[in-house]
Amino acid sequence: MSYLTVNEISHVFLSKQKAIKILDSLTFKVDKGEFVSILGPSGCGKSTLLSIISSLLTPYDGLVQFKGHPYDVKTGEIGYMLQHDYLFPWKSIKENIFLGLEILGKDSDENKLRALELLKEVGLEGYENAYPRELSGGMRQRVALVRTLATSPSIVLLDEPFSALDYQNKVKLEELVFHLFKKLNTTALLVTHDIEEAVAMCDRVITLTNVPTKISNIFHLPEELRNDSPFEARQQSLFPSYVSSIWKELEKRE
């Protein structure tokens, strides 16, 4: 049984004039511990798909199953990290990373201590009582990452979380996420526009067509790339050929 199953998912956006079919019978599976990326044209419904997987949005048709059952959002087993950090400016860093624990009723001393250990692990020890305005963009995204992982999610959905960062900070955060997820055996689904990022970080890359959106191809990345960190993967001789193949697939489907 697959950890996450997306089965024949379709979705329609309605306006006063017409109905627009965004997603058209998307089907794929994600195994436990796997890191999968989703690439597609702007506006093809990638973020909509993540919202459906996280149960924030009900699909027009189809079914998403987690561990063989519909996902219960109250469990907090699916974490969601967005492009912007959305830290509350009036709360300290410590208060921000405890927020998910409080919402889910998991704010025990043990869980709070674990969240603070994660903050230390991402290089932000000593910033517990600082406020978001005192941190750089890269540091704020690390706080957002800790807030997401503090509830111990089984799956993390990543919606272009590095796109607002400069290249150096982006790769640094990619490295951090890669190593942390490997250590925690976290299953992840990454939406991105960056082909290099997808190839550098993931085990598989799913490419989508334009609206009405279907899966156009699934690229299984070789072990040499999967086992290397994002920075190291970019140095591999195989790396450019996979980037090129995925780029051509997306061009064909525009």
TrEMBL record:
PROSITE patterns reported in the protein's UniProt record: ABC_TRANSPORTER_1, ABC_TRANSPORTER_2
InterPro entries xrefs: AAA+_ATPase, ABC_transporter-like_ATP-bd, ABC_transporter-like_CS, ABC_transporter_ATP-bind, P-loop_NTPase
Gene3D superfamilies: P-loop containing nucleotide triphosphate hydrolases
GO MF terms held by the record: ATP binding; ATP hydrolysis activity
Keywords, sorted A to Z: ATP-binding, Nucleotide-binding, Transport
Annotated ABC transporter domain residues: 4-235
UniProt-recorded name of the protein: ABC transporter ATP-binding protein
